[in-house]
Amino acid sequence: MTDTWIRAAASSDLEPDAVIGVQVGGQDLALYRHEGTVYATHNVCTHAYALLSDGYFEDGEIECPIHAARFSIKTGRALCAPASIAVKTYAVQEKDGDILVKLA
User: Fold this and answer.
1) What is the pLDDT of residue 2?
2) What is the CATH number of the domain that holds 41?
């Protein structure tokens, strides 16, 4: 892990109210644009292996495409069963047309 900012995607790759999956520093991340702000979480559901970026994204929550567990994209908190463990979140900034994340 690193404590430096790493480019995850171009800002133009992430539409409003959308989610995309990316690989950053060997990590699977999901990037979300919600109400003009970009958020990042680990892209794998904590209940069972499924990519959150393949799930349903609405109102600041991402729903796992397999078992319908939901997570807050802001805090990572698991919002309903079957998930009970939060998904990891990452610091994000947009600069010069890029989305940057800190993995530490």
Assistant:
1) 61
2) 2.102.10.10
